[in-house]
């Protein structure tokens, strides 16, 4: 397939997903189990903060525990 056709299919699928989400929010009345589920975009913000935390924690773990100095084996 040509790249242009793939991009058109991508944009159509993105639009269809957004439309389905909006229609589901309008016609399905989901009852939250917890109070924080009532906060708009809470899940998106929570997921973003969680991903940032995982990245920062893994970088810190890598720098302070996993990586060794250049002459680590020469010291022994």
Q: What is the makeup of the main sheet?
A: none
Number of domains: 2
Work out the helicity level. Answer: 55-70%
Rg calc: 23 Å
- Average pLDDT works out at 90
Query: In terms of structural class, how would the helical and strand content be classed?
Result: mainly alpha
Terminal CA distance reads 58 Å
Overall outline: flat
- Write down the secondary-structure element order: HH
Strand percentage lies at under 5%
Helical stretch count?
2
Number of strands: 0
| Low-confidence runs | none
Key features of this structure:
2 domains, 66% helix, 76 residues, single chain, mainly alpha, 0% strand, flat
Description of the structure:
The protein has two helices and no strands. The chain has helices at 3-27, 42-66. It folds into two domains: 1-30; 32-76. It is mostly helical and 76 residues long. The termini are far apart.
């Amino acid at each position: 397939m040509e790249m242009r056709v793939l991009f058109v299919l991508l944009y159509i699928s993105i639009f269809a997903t957004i439309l389905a989400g909006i229609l589901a929010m309008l016609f399905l009345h989901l009852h939250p189990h917890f109070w924080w589920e009532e906060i708009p975009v809470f899940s998106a913000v929570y997921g973003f903060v969680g991903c940032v935390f995982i990245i920062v924690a893994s970088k810190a773990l890598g720098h302070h525990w996993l990586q060794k100095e250049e002459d680590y084996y020469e010291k022994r």
